[in-house]
Write a structure and sequence with these properties.
This protein is mainly β and 49 residues long. It has one domain: Rubrerythrin, domain 2, CATH 2.20.28.120. 0% of the residues lie in helices and 59% in strands. It contains no helices and 4 strands. The protein has a 4-stranded antiparallel β-sheet with strand order 2-1-4-3, with no helix packed on it.
Amino acid sequence: MRTHFTLRCTVCKSENYRAHKNRKIHPERMETQKYCPKCRKQTLHKEKK
């Protein structure tokens, strides 16, 4: 049971990445450091609601 979701930059609020995960194993929201092309640096990306 894998679901797709969008990762959003916390600085500029642009939606840059699509990812997937198993919600039964990881029910919490994902947070990761990713490169944002709009900010042109690595920023924290969180799972969109």
